[in-house]
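Hello forum,

I keep getting stuck at the same step: I have a sequence, I want structure tokens, and every attempt I make locally crashes halfway through. Rather than fight my setup again tonight, could one of you with a working pipeline run this one for me? It's a single chain of 177 residues.
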Amino acid sequence: MKTALSATTLTFALLAVGFAATDADAASHRVVRPNAGGGATATTAVTRQGAQGGTRVRNRATTTDGQGNATTAGGATTTGPRGATAVRSGQASRSADGSAQRSGSFAASGAKGNVETSGSSSKSADGTVDANRSTSATSAATGNSVQSTATYNQATGVTRNTTCYDASGATMSCPSR
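Reply #2:
Ran it on my machine without issues. Output:
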């Protein structure tokens, strides 16, 4: 199954459904319907408002076709009462032949700095697995940052690479834990 969902399009559509609810503190909307592919499509959107002004919106859509293929995509956005934000999105699919793919990303930003990470993994019908992840973080206090990548391949195992930078962008030794 080669169908890919546009996570951005799906996110905006589900966010609109979630914000249409009338309850200011918490709203939820869930729909499950049969589809033309012989399976079902389920969508969920939830919004929450915290007592101190924080908000959280999350959504998910899952589709099956009745032949063993399935796709899902979803995300969440959180805003804290002091302005910190976090956004997560992901999508996954599974085919009737046993192959599967997954990808996702996360970003957060606040008074102490920011972090971003994204990655993907895949499993072929014969069981071969490949995966990768990329992460970067920056300290608001020092301006120092780190960039890290990791890849996994069954033939070569895990390969990691991490580089640290000072506030001017010059490489520096990474601090020990």
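The CA atoms of residues 164 and 176 lie 11 Å apart. If your local run keeps crashing, start a new thread with the error log.
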